[in-house]
Amino acid sequence: GKYVYFFGNGQAEGKAEMKNLLGGKGANLAEMTAIGLPVPPGFTITTEVCTYYYANNRSYPPSLAAEVAEHLKKMESLMGRTFGDRNNPLLVSVRSGARASMPGMMDTILNLGLNDETVQGIIAQSGDERFAYDAYRRFVQMYSDVVMGMDKDLLEHLLEQKKDEKGVHLDTDLTAADWKELVGKFKAKIRETIGKEFPEDPQEQLWGAVGAVFGSWMNQRAITYRRLNNIPADWGTAVNVQSMVYGNMGNDCATGVAFTRDPSTGENYFYGEYLVNAQGEDVVAGIRTPQPINRANSKDTTLPAMEDVLPECYQQLVQIRGILEKHYKDMQDIEFTIEKGKLFMLQTRNGKRTAKAAIKIAVDMVREGLIDEKTAVLRVSPSQLDQLLHPSLDPKAQKRVIAKGLPASPGAASGEVVFTADEAEAAARLGLKVILVRVETSPEDIHGMHAAQGILTARGGMTSHAAVVARGMGKCCVAGCGDIKVDYAGSQFATAKGQVVKKGDVITLDGSTGEVMLGEVPTVPPQLTGDFGTLMEWVDRFRKLKVRTNADTPNDSRVAREFGAEGIGLCRTEHMFFEADRVAAVREMILAEDVEGRKRALAKILPMQKGDFVGIFREMKGLPVTIRLLDPPLHEFLPHEDKDIDALAKSMGVTAQSLRAKVDYLHEFNPMLGHRGCRLGLTFPEIYDMQVQAIMEAACELTKNEGFSIVPEIMIPLVGVVTELARLRENTVRVCEEVIAACGVKVDYLIGTMIELPRAALTADEIAREAEFFSFGTNDLTQTTFGLSRDDAGKFLPFYVESGLLEEDPFVSLDQNGVGQLVKVAVEKGRATRPDIKLGICGEHGGDPSSVIFCHRIGLDYVSCSPFRVPIARLAAAHAVL
Ligand code: PEP
Ligand code: MG
């Protein structure tokens, strides 16, 4: 087979499409060469050689040596220089280049081919002895580190010694003689430390470097990077051997990096930085302050722009920018070097960009006729959109980070620290902005979470209560911040570094990074119009899957509609029960001695519940709304503190002792598998009857008075057996018909169920007899399929993911092979019984891009997710089609 591909002088054996074989860098060097751009000649050893190398005990295909020699010859003849020649030597760089970019993960060696003889030739070529010896010592340092495994600090130490000895501070203060002396000392140190001579033979150097690059594919850094980025180990890396060009031979030399458009805003101008008389590494390493390539986007106009300093090269680069964009039809990230006034391209690739830039570039390129709308939609990744949908920290602002936790719910928020939900609510009523800080949150904190600008917890993972609820509210949350110790008694928390933050102090949270900052850091609001709006119009034209939202309040419903929600897929009614003025009535209802007592308490709740539904229906203006009847374990509503029990006992006219006994009786060992969902509705039918009455009265009144046509979808949770649903359906129909008769209007309604237990999925054909729709509650379905507690998994699930036992957190991304199969079975069985059954998903997965794509594939009608994820789901649904 062919293992080596040449590029140089306008001819290339490879091309951009050959990334799998040549790696990204090699494929693009070939492509640039072929379209006539100035690229130093070289060759690429393919990724197949890497695969061979590992399959054959770190050896090469027998024909490789001859192929390399042949291509080296071609390089020599193009350059008019000879590898290893003492008078006019060719020097090369040896770099890795995988299919996917793995920045900084693998090794690079520059200036290869230098030895005590060839250095003389470089002096002759450059006329600069200092330059030649500086290049030589850099090569010895790099090579001994990367190829020979030398501890680089030992050589660095010799360098420092030399500077001390001469009383200078900068490398640039050392002379040719100093570098020459250091090369000798370096080699002696290497010999002394590892017992091997530094290789003088350029061929030996070359093969040593090639081996090191292939070897670096399996270094720990690279392995970890691949795991984090889902890059398969068997892809392998290619090796690029290329003629050296120098940006550090004098003031007519330079090196730089540039983007063909601004990668943070997407603005259509040339954006880049360069340094005169420097090597490529110097720009990125930040040792010297890089200068702008042009005046137009220069923040500091006192810095000399390349446009002025090297005008001809600049003009050539501008031209190349145009050629590259027309050719690749995407924003490029380029590296270039200027050697003695001559420009060379060293790299091009599609540039990484912010979400904002991704959208602007995609929309602009459609307008410019470079790409079509479909391509534009595919250019923006759904997960990236998240950045745009929340207020974010002003990138220009100063920040003082005091702790870091999990980025549980994106966005940014500032406010005064409070430690209880009641404090949060009270402060919000006074118009104050607060951050609620808790060890962890529970349903009792909902009102405080609503009132707060952001939530910070010391414990809990990405699926903890705080994280899920905050995401649902679109509220910024940093969870599991082990760096802080919360001291409720002292109304303060301390950070690991000893910073103490007291109640009333202002902090800022960044839910996208997990950072906690002292003081108020300014934010910028999300931009949903303009280019974003244009792109989303295209998105909606392509997608088939509908996107609804999970919303419990009129406010969330409005936000979701602004984000493009086409209905509510899940309105959880329990959160409504926690509001301060209701929870007493709810507790009274739960703890009532008999049906009559329960009905008395429910009668107090009914008008409030009806008001909730009126508000939500009104916001949704006739779009479908699925309302789930009460679901959580009763005990979540119970008072536990003595003072609460005393107060409640008083208001109910019973003794605290008997009330406590009742509370104890209701305690459950495993509440998630306990008295919840439809089991409540069956044992306390009055509760669901009241809710159904509230829903239907709201729908009937609005239909009568405001002219909407509303078709409420009433949803029964946690059904496992069809008989449960059959009985509850009877009750529901009875109440609905009573209300309709009493109101004297015609309102249609649907009755359906959640599929959130494996048994329900497996018997979906039976259940579909009683259900007009299914909504997959994949949070519980994941919990019950894995037998993995949603509330406790945070303690060990991160370990599962980090150590590769699970590829992803199944509460974040749907487990398609397990849980997903149950969903698929239920879809098929449900449709077999009732072909027009409406099918959707309302678990957290409804807003996760890969899960949305799965939902499209198995034929769901819609996904439902938290308001702020609606655009993400819309985009993912479009990607599923394209
Ligand atoms: C679910 O279980 O997936 C669901 C949406 O319901 P909840 O999260 O309220 O249990
Ligand atoms: Mg559920």
Automatic annotation (TrEMBL):
Cofactor(s) the protein requires to work: Mg(2+)
Keywords of this entry: ATP-binding, Kinase, Magnesium, Metal-binding, Nucleotide-binding, Pyruvate, Transferase
UniProt keyword annotation of Kinase present: yes
PEP-utilising enzyme mobile domain sequence ranges: 434-514
InterPro entries, per the entry: ATP_grasp_subdomain_1, PEP-util_enz_mobile_dom, PEP_util_AS, PEP_util_C, PEP_util_CS, Phosphohistidine_dom_sf, PPDK_AMP/ATP-bd, Pyruvate_phosphate_dikinase
Annotated PEP-utilising enzyme C-terminal domain residues: 529-880
Reactions that this protein is recorded to catalyse: pyruvate + phosphate + ATP = phosphoenolpyruvate + AMP + diphosphate + H(+)
Keyword Kinase: yes
GO molecular function (one): pyruvate, phosphate dikinase activity
EC number: 2.7.9.1
Domain Pyruvate phosphate dikinase AMP/ATP-binding: 20-57, 64-300, 312-368
Database matches in Pfam families: PEP-utilizers, PEP-utilizers_C, PPDK_N
Role, per record: Catalyzes the reversible phosphorylation of pyruvate and phosphate.
NCBIfam families: PRK05878.1, pyru_phos_dikin
Family classification: Belongs to the PEP-utilizing enzyme family.
PANTHER family recorded: PHOSPHOENOLPYRUVATE DIKINASE-RELATED, PYRUVATE, PHOSPHATE DIKINASE 1, CHLOROPLASTIC
Protein name: Pyruvate, phosphate dikinase
